[in-house]
Amino acid sequence: MAHNRLSVHAVTFSGAPLTELDKHWRALGLRRLSLVDSQLSEPDLQRLIDDGGYAVESVCHVFDTRDGLLRVIDAAAAVHARSIYMLTGGRGGTTWERAAERFCSAIQPCVRSAEQAGIALAIEPASSLYADIHIAHTLRDTITLAEMAGVGVCIDLFHCWAEADFAELVNRALPRTQLIQLSDYALGDRALPARAVPGDGAIPIGPFVAQVLAGGYPHNFDLELIGPRIDREGRFEAARRACDVVEALLNRHGA
Q1: Alpha-carbon torsion 86, 37, 160, 82, what sign?
Q2: Is this prediction's pTM over 0.85?
Q3: Hey, what's the torsion of the CAs at 214, 9, 139, 84, to 10 degrees?
Q4: Pairing state of beta strands 177-182 and 152-156?
Q5: What is the dihedral of CA 188, 190, 192, 196, to 10 degrees?
Q6: Phi/psi at 227 (5° precision)
């Protein structure tokens, strides 16, 4: 049985049907799930959750319209998901500030709906390579936007570990943090999305985990493992090794 605060994001096995995902989750000993929003409409999802004794920890959603997010909130509530983390939609030709105001205004009814459903909404940092579907490309900007919108933060360590004053930013984010995603980066890797198994690269994952646990972070650690390195090793093999590494970290720091 894996650590009860671990999940492996469904995108790690992108393209796999639910039956195959279930086999991977069971083999890894996982009981927390991290899904993409399209999976919420799978007719067999609820049965799989019940049979496996799973809890849905998080759902990934790329914001497009208010109605679309409201539908995802309803679907997430139906499977008792704890959180939805989002990309915001792109900025088009406008300024960051205007795009941020537009996003905040658009999601306000969704924030209220999520609160009523007992679901935490959050946004994550993502590379500017995804500027067509997102506006928060640093942890600093993610926190600023989350504060403006009245939502939480998902810290995807891969996208923000190298920022200046990172430890200070993490402390600022922690009261709002609803999910932490872990993977590693091997210096010089240009084969996007270039993620590596924790421990195989340069990201100081151990000190980060120690900091957030000491700061009282109470929620899940999600492993998002995608890219050529993961595919070469084998997705399941990479996920199994990542679970072992992060579980050891969590146990070492008293999670």
Answers
A1: positive
A2: yes
A3: -100
A4: parallel
A5: -20
A6: 125, 175
The H-assigned helical ranges of 150-227 are 166-173, 205-214
User: pLDDT digit of tens for each residue in the chain (255 aa)?
Assistant: 889 999 999 999 999 999 999 999 999 999 999 999 999 999 999 999 999 999 999 999 999 999 999 999 999 999 999 999 999 999 999 999 999 999 999 999 999 999 999 999 999 999 999 999 999 999 999 999 999 999 999 999 999 999 999 999 999 999 999 999 999 999 999 999 999 999 999 999 999 999 999 999 999 999 999 999 999 999 999 999 999 999 999 999 988
Three-state DSSP state, 90 = coil
Contact assessment for residue 226 and residue 193, using Cβ atoms and an 8 Å cutoff: yes
